[in-house]
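ok here's Rieske domain-containing protein, seq below lol
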Amino acid sequence: MSLTMEERNITPSEAYPGDKTTTKAAEPELLKVEITGDRYTSKEFKDQEWAHMWRRVWMIAGMADDCAEPGDFFTCDLGHEPLLFVRGKDGINGFYNICQHRGAKLVLQDKGTMDSFSCIYHGWKYGLEGELVEAQDRDDFERDPCEHVRLADFRTEIFAGFVWYCLDDDAPGLDDFLGDMKEQLESWQLNDGFRVEHFTVELPCNWKVVIDNFQEGYHIRTLHPQLMETVNENKESVQYDLYDGGHSRMILLGCDPSPNFQPQNTLPDSITHMLTKWDINPEEYKDRHGEIRPALQQTKREKSAERGKDFSHLSDAQLTDNFLYDLFPSCALSVYPEGEYVWLLRSRPHPDDPEKCLFDYWTIAKFPEGEDTLYWEHMDMTLTRDAEIEHKQFKWGEESISFGIDQDVDIAPIVQQGMRSHGFKKAILCHQERRVQFLHDNIDRYIKGDLGR
Ligand code: FES
Ligand SMILES: [Fe+2]
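and the structure came out like this:
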């Protein structure tokens, strides 16, 4: 019997009462700060964000795998701060990537393995724990610098397969910062994910234009009509959760062609592939779209053992639905069914210009035991495990990232133009865009010192 429209428009927490992975968070009172153009253009606002927010939040630096052995290191920037992460004898050390002699940037490579780091300017050399081990003409200094100089450090943690860091020692620890997010990320068991794509793109827009976009499903029908083949973006069906600390979540019913998808009595290729992969006859579901999702969940459970997959840690919703987390302030983690793929979509502030940002795009895949390739229906692409993936870095417009992400990224400069205009007063948000409001409310909470203390 086909599901009625009302039955299709049920949110995950309504469909699975008592399931901890989809529990609806209580709706907080929103501050409703006005989202005006100057938040995206003004140097003063950018400076306030830096002083009160960026230094106090925990950010993902890279994959723990990239720092697995002593001496393995990688570098990245946050705003104007160059940062160095290196595996030392007891874990991963985080250092400002700055020589203590006269301040030259110390490590110029993206990543690698070293037993020490030498500054190219006057040759000061540092060990893996940040200690200065050699300095030219050390007897020429009033006091031997090797006796007291170290690289400046900050806190790091490893969690969910990522290296995390926070630049302010007085800010709360990672567990407090993540709050409810910690258990949610743990539920996916992401530790064995492998990064297969790594892009950093300089975009001509403020960092918030990018991350505002990943807070809502309202734009799917217009910007990504192809997604209606596989996800139910109808406003009644998408679940939005707002959490303490400024984090939030959006759950989109997956393997569930949108009621807005036409024609309703055909099956998109992506769904046909999903069904065939699990030995379900697609013909039976041509005009029963609402039944695909529960059928897939049931079959995945029944056949997981024979397919060599362990789904025991996942809920039914996690077998089919798309979970999009926002880790405050700017890291969207889009986790696909079974946790098989994760997208990290993250913006970082530009060092100087409030009207530019750096957009990071990572794809993380879980390869089945013993296999090095994986076909991804959603993106219609085959992913390959390769330890030496290239970190592609370019400016917007020079290269494509991928079809779906280009759609999100290409709208950003168009929005930024509006932020400068006298004709734009403030954003007018609908209920399904309340994560955007929540993000801006919490930026203001940080700036006022009400959060992150
Ligand atoms: S600035 Fe590094 S050795 Fe002089
Ligand atoms: Fe989008």
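fwiw The chain has two domains: 5-56+180-448, 59-170. kinda neat tbh
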